[in-house]
Amino acid sequence: MDPIRNPYAPGAGQRPPELAGRDEQLSQFDVVLQRVAKGRPERSLILTGLRGVGKTVLLNALRGQAVRAGWGTGKFEARPDQTLRRPIAAAAHVAVRELGHTQLDQVDHVLGVVKSFAQRETAANAKLRDRWNPGIDAPAIAGRADSGDIEIDLVELLTDIGGLAADLGRGIAIFIDEMQDLGPEDISALCAACHEISQSSLPVIVVGAGLPHLPAVLSASKSYSERLFRYARIDRLERDAADAALAVPAEEEDADFEVDALAEMYAVTGGYPYFIQAYGKEVWDLAPGTPITREDVLVAVPRAEAELAVGFFGSRYERATPAERDYLRAMAEVALVDAEGNPLGGASRIEGGAATEETDESGSGTTAYNSSLVIELDSVPTSEVAKWLGKQPQSLSPARDALLKKGLIYSTERGRIAFTVPHFGRYLRDHP
């Protein structure tokens, strides 16, 4: 197949040619936009899910909806090493400019508040050269959003930009990716600000995206966060949506998939949007012609997996220290259980023929499992990980906490953990 016409796009946050399976979230957000613009009460939105399910893509799609509705929007990606003040000030600046308010004196006043809010990150007695300039021409408005208390300042900032939008009968939406990486103080301030704004019926909403434990992070900060946000779990695609994500772009390039090929693609990708794009790209490049067959998929699988092993899985694994890698591999082994729920965890602990140990030419051992007898758990007990490593759970706390901070694992509930990356356990077992 012509690689120049390859329609698939396996990129970080890159919108696929067919955004399949997300119609419900898009239609619900359209209702939110219209209700907020009319002064109706609505909650801000939180998207959660594993890596590779398309949270960033959906976040960008929702922002596009807001822009088409005439809203002012701004977006930033939270980072563990950065406080909230500067990125949300930059997002607010963009949002105010997008509104296109015609009363320039009012716009300059609000931009002055944004500038005042941003510059408060530096000490009040700092020299001029040390003050951060957010690129706003308007003079800073002293005494507004510059108290130094992020919770007070954020309420005043959102109040002022929301008032500007209300004049036009539109709204402001701030989009935050990787929201779980905000610090505790910033999370608390954001929740309090959203609470205050909703009580004031101002047309301002926050749309956040993050890993599955983000709701727990918000709840730990403010107990009312459970009622403050609307939560949407973004998961892998159902079979019909996954088929559409492959078939629709192919049809636009005068190609199609055989039914068996689509079934095999769903089996190898698990319905995860990023994997669909990654495997789809390799299948297209290697297939000799249309229709694409199951045999074409099987030929392309090794190349797709090799690409994922380097860019998707390997890059994350390399961020871990040796002790953290041991912890990850133990998780991958402990996740395997038999049909009765008994842990397998490697050939040496298996009875009844559920696995066999094989040795390749280099002499290294690998474990081959009978898939009909093996189940992979979504999460594993931390106690079982410690048992597998032959250590006390307390001694593993530093490695576990570091992996949590790096976003490689998350806590599903007390005493249980899971990978944030789908198929990561399989990758670890396939790459000793």
From TrEMBL:
**Xref: PANTHER family:** ATPASE DOMAIN-CONTAINING PROTEIN, DNA-BINDING PROTEIN-RELATED
Can you give the residue ranges of the Cytochrome c domain? Answer: 166-374
This one is known as: ATP-binding protein
Keywords for the protein's UniProt record, in alphabetical order: ATP-binding, Heme, Iron, Metal-binding, Nucleotide-binding
**Can you name one GO molecular function term for this protein?**
ATP binding
Q: Does the keyword Iron apply?
A: yes
Q: Which domain of life is it from?
A: Bacteria
Matches recorded under InterPro entries: AAA_16, Cyt_c-like_dom, P-loop_NTPase
* Disordered: annotated segments: 1-21, 346-367
Which Pfam families does UniProt cross-reference here?
AAA_16
Q: Which organism is it from?
A: Nostocoides veronense
